[in-house]
Write a structure and sequence with these properties.
Length: 307
């Protein structure tokens, strides 16, 4: 959404920002947030860029923050880790981007130099990773400071649609990498996706690159399930009756699925994934639920590895 739309979604009355002030969505503790005045960010390090945000969006992770699930986010933090914008200023160490460049902001900040970056594990970067809208002020604002800009920005493809391209900041690669690639979807697989939000739908779209035999979409919202149908889900399961796992086991004649991908982020949906995994299958969960995932990862149940 544009910053004007975010403004409308989050505040009642907004005055245009002037001088060094800007409007931003600010977290003030669980359940409390406001669209308010903040100082515009300035260059702090040579690798920084200041980007004027033209399109941003709201991630399920922002909703977890607002519920108080991520205590590392402190009072006063500007939320948001996705965005499209125009470079307004660059530090002396930035070589790949110039003032006026239109860019896609990655939700992951990468220095490109540390051991993790050199292994392509940018989300574990020793000088970055996911910090925007988490431990550093984020993109739900008129301006954002992007550290390690050379590794954290991407040139915007000319002529493309901003609302489509903002999906590349986080949602589409998360669904594809964390869900489909780590879940090792293969031709002929039966795949269950729990959660038909943007991330679950991105999993659904990209899982189809690997020609699975069936994709079950599980959610509590019929409207989202209807969209999943349009996007290629073969079976829809509304789990509000509490019997999602039972329905999946019926559909698979008791075998369970080859791949179960969790895209909600609450214990109940992890439980569904664990209950429906068939022999030799994989259970892939959202990266933000690290504590829960590490518990899941360490378990082998009935000969089934939960990765
Ligand atoms: N890099 C990452 O690891 C990363 C990036 C983005 C999002 N995420 C995580 O992915 C998850 C999904 O993100 P999103 O933006 O799609 O979220 P979202 O909130 O838009 O969508 C969640 C969906 O889950 C459904 N849902 C809620 N409770 C349910 C239940 N009990 N059973 C079944 N469905 C239920 C909702 O109806 C909704 O459709 C979140 O946990 C988010 O934090 C992780
Ligand atoms: Zn996100
Ligand atoms: Zn790094």
């Amino acid at each position: 959404m544009t910053t004007a739309e975010l403004e409308r979604a989050t505040t009642k009355a907004v005055a245009p920002s002037v001088g060094t002030a800007m409007k931003a969505l600010v977290y003030h503790g669980p359940g409390q947030y406001a669209w308010e005045d903040k100082l515009r960010p300035a260059i702090q390090d040579p690798g920084d860029a200041i980007v004027r945000v033209t399109t941003t969006t709201i991630c399920g992770t922002d909703l977890h923050i607002l519920k108080g699930d991520l205590p590392a986010v402190t009072d006063g933090r500007i939320l948001g880790h996705e965005g499209i914008g125009v470079v307004e200023q660059v530090g002396t160490g930035v070589s790949e981007f110039h003032v006026g460049d239109k860019v896609i902001i990655s939700c992951v900040t990468a220095c490109l130099k540390c051991d993790f970056c050199k292994r392509g594990m940018y989300s574990h970067c020793r000088h970055g990773g996911w910090i925007l809208g988490y431990t550093l002020d984020g993109t739900q604002a008129e301006y954002v400071r992007i550290p390690q800009a050379d590794g954290s920005l991407y040139h915007f493809p000319p002529g493309e649609d901003e609302e489509a391209m903002v999906m590349l900041s986080d949602i589409l690669p998360t669904g594809f990498e964390c869900g489909v690639l780590n879940g090792q979807v293969k031709p002929g697989d039966t795949v269950a996706i729990v959660g038909a939000g943007p991330v679950g739908l991105a999993v659904l779209l990209t899982a189809q690159f690997y020609s699975p035999a069936a994709i079950f979409m599980i959610d509590i919202d019929d409207k989202r399930l209807a969209i999943a149908k349009q996007f290629g889900a073969t079976n829809l399961i509304n789990s509000s009756d509490g019997h999602a796992a039972h329905h999946v086991m019926e559909l698979t004649e008791g075998a369970g699925v080859d791949v179960a991908i969790e895209a909600v982020g609450i214990p109940a949906t992890f439980d569904i994934c664990q209950a429906i995994i068939g022999a030799g299958g994989h259970d892939q969960v959202g990266e933000d639920m690290v504590r829960r995932r590490s518990r899941v990862q360490s378990r082998v149940i009935q000969g089934v590895l939960l990765s």
